[in-house]
């Protein structure tokens, strides 16, 4: 059975991403693994005139109870897919999105990663980087990019 990893950030484009992943899964008879990664937030702490420190702030989800809420959200998103006959699993993790997406793809022997692109511009990516770019560079399998729905 083929496996498709679908990382979700719960943004407005998540339903579009799920629709596209399901459209790929159906003819392949593939199972979908819905993944949500909760990233820690970096906090800039000025220490002195010449020395600065970047400290990691604890993520908003700090426990298995918090992850259970994220997994419940994934289950709710997966219900219509299950009802349509697809096999769906859900996983929520605390970590770094690119690292965990690549690790989960390798661990679960994913045949594809279906990933959404928010369509931010080059300047945004220059300063913040891009999960899509990081996954594309390191993925152990083909990556399907679903562009964010644009008006007009």
Strand order of the largest sheet: 5-2-1-6-7
Instruction: Outline the low-pLDDT stretches.
Output: 124-128
How confident overall, as mean pLDDT? 84
Named CATH architecture: 3-Layer(aba) Sandwich
Give the domain tally.
1
The helix/strand order is EHEEEHEHEHHE
Q: Give the CA-CA distance, first to last residue.
A: 38 Å
Structure report:
- The protein has 152 residues and is an alpha/beta fold.
- The chain has a single domain, classed as Rossmann fold (3-Layer(aba) Sandwich), CATH 3.40.50.620.
- The protein is 40% helix and 28% strand.
- The strands form two sheets. It has a five-stranded parallel β-sheet, sandwiched between helices.
- Helix 3 runs parallel beside helix 5.
- The radius of gyration is 17 Å and the shape is globular.
- The termini are far apart.
Briefly, what is this?
The protein has five helices and seven strands; from the N terminus they run βαβββαβαβααβ. With 152 residues, it is an alpha/beta fold. Helix 3 runs parallel beside helix 5 (131-138).
List the helices and strands and how they pair.
Blueprint: E1 3-7, H1 14-28, E2 31-38, E3 41-46, E4 52-57, H2 64-83, E5 88-94, H3 97-107, E6 112-117, H4 122-128, H5 131-138, E7 143-147
Parallel strand pairs: 1-2, 1-6, 2-5, 6-7
Antiparallel strand pairs: 3-4
Can you give keywords for this protein?
two-stranded antiparallel sheet, five-stranded parallel beta sheet, alpha/beta, globular, 152 residues, Rossmann fold
């Amino acid at each position: 059975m083929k496996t498709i990893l679908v990382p979700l950030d719960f943004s407005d484009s998540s339903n579009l991403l799920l629709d596209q992943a399901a459209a790929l899964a159906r003819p392949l008879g593939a199972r979908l693994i819905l993944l949500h990664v909760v990233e820690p937030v970096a906090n800039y702490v000025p220490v002195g005139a010449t020395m600065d420190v970047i400290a990691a702030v604890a993520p908003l989800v700090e426990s298995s109870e918090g992850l259970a809420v994220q997994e419940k959200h994934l289950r709710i998103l997966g219900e219509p897919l299950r009802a349509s006959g697809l096999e769906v699993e859900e996983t929520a993790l605390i970590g770094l999105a690119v690292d965990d997406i690549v690790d989960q793809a390798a661990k679960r022997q994913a045949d594809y990663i279906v990933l959404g692109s928010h369509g931010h511009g080059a300047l945004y990516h220059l300063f913040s980087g891009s999960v899509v770019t990081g996954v594309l560079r390191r993925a152990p399998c083909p990556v399907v990019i679903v562009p964010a729905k644009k008006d007009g």
